[in-house]
Write a structure and sequence with these properties.
Layout lengths: L3 E7 L2 E6 L2 H14 L4 H31 L4 E7 L2 E6 L6 H28 L18 H16 L7 H11 L4 H23 L5 H25 L15 E3 L4 H10 L4 E6 L2 E7 H9 L17 E3 L4 H9 L5 E6 L2 E7 H17 L1
């Protein structure tokens, strides 16, 4: 998140605003100046955009709180010029739960609209001509904000996976067919609609091009993730266990580690004290030690000592999620207190490839 501004946390969830958001503000100011608007009207326009993104934040918070109800935490919420993204630890796999989480965001926008409904009802939109209707001022600020929230809700419910509507569609399909097939159908529908967004973007609004590309890339990525989860179903750490790994004793020097690095394909080395693993030395640690002129130093001075531990029966889906969330280079695997081997991210990916090849052959 180095390229984002950290805003105050909401309900314990970190909120960031991406640096590209400043481009949107600059564009709003530029277009208002070209339209001949004065400073006061420009300020109202910028305030309206900021208020709109407060609504977007609340939308994402709706997803986050609904997910938390099912025991799923949200890592953070990031605001981009094209909208917000709540990074959940995972999406619920039960169709009913996913349906609730997916629809919670648009329902927040509907709630905001209902709160502003009296102002919308009283405001005479027809009293303004088409040119003036888009100029934000003190009179139309709140009515326009209410109307925009309805459009946000409707837009997000377009069945273009991985948008909210696409997730709703996936959840509904999952009641009748398996999750992988449901995701594939929702993905393909999303891609068709995304191509339409890109096409319209050249004639209507360039932002539609970015939204279309986001949908295409996001849908494919989500499908691959769901397919991987399916392929790892019922598999445990024991199915991806590596017993043939390169190790170093805790008192070995960095020079010894360099020789093993050059003499093998290993990138991560298990540091042991007798038969017990005490840490991991990665290739990056070795390069850091060399750069600091510490060839004669013990590997224990540079190793990662905080290494996750698990047992043979831990589901691989839990482990791959742990790795994807930055859980370290590998995991130590034990059975009844005895060290049995390690599991790393690359080996889990190899299990996925093997399983996928087996299904294709079948």
């Amino acid at each position: 998140m180095k390229s984002s501004l950290h805003l105050p946390e909401i309900a314990g969830i970190k909120v960031y605003i991406h640096w590209t958001f400043s481009i949107l503000i600059a564009w709003i100011i530029y277009t208002n100046l070209r339209a001949g608007l004065g400073p006061e009207q420009i300020v109202w326009s910028v305030l309206f955009i900021l208020s709109l993104f407060v609504c977007v934040t609340l939308h994402e918070l709706g997803h986050a709180l609904a997910a938390k109800h099912y025991g799923i935490n949200t890592k953070d919420i990031t605001l981009y010029p094209i909208g917000g993204v709540a990074r959940l630890e995972k999406m619920p796999e039960k169709p009913g739960q996913e349906l609730v989480v997916a629809i919670a965001g648009p329902l927040v926008n509907v709630l905001i609209m209902l709160i502003l409904l009296p102002m919308i009802y009283k405001f005479d939109f027809t009293a303004q001509n088409n040119e003036k209707a888009l100029i934000i001022n003190a009179t139309n600020f709140l009515p326009m904000l209410g109307v925009i929230n309805i459009w946000l809700a409707l837009f997000n419910l377009i069945p273009a996976f991985p948008m909210d509507g696409g997730r709703v569609l996936r959840a509904l399909l999952s009641f009748r067919i398996n999750r992988v097939k449901a995701t594939e159908i929702a993905m393909n529908i999303g891609k068709i609609l995304a191509i339409g967004f890109v096409f319209l973007g050249f004639y209507v609004n360039p932002f539609l091009i970015f939204i279309g590309l986001f949908i295409i890339l996001g849908a494919q990525s989500e499908f691959e993730m769901v397919k991987s989860q399916f392929l790892l179903t019922n598999l445990t750490a024991g199915n991806a266990l590596m017993t043939n790994f390169t190790s170093l004793e805790v008192n070995d020097t960095i020079e010894s580690a360099v020789r093993k690095l050059l003499d093998s394909e290993s990138k991560n080395f298990v540091i042991t004290s007798g038969s017990n693993p005490v840490g991991v030395l990665t290739r990056e640690h070795i390069i850091q030690a060399i750069s600091g002129g510490a060839m004669g130093s013990p590997v224990s001075a540079f190793m990662l000592a905080e290494v996750p531990r698990t047992n043979l029966f831990t589901p691989l889906n839990d482990l791959i999620l742990q790795f994807q969330q930055g859980g370290g280079p590998l995991v130590f695997v034990f059975d009844q207190g005895i060290f049995r081997g390690v599991v790393d991210y690359e080996n889990i990916l190899e299990v996925i490839m093997v399983r996928n090849a087996g299904l294709q052959k079948g």
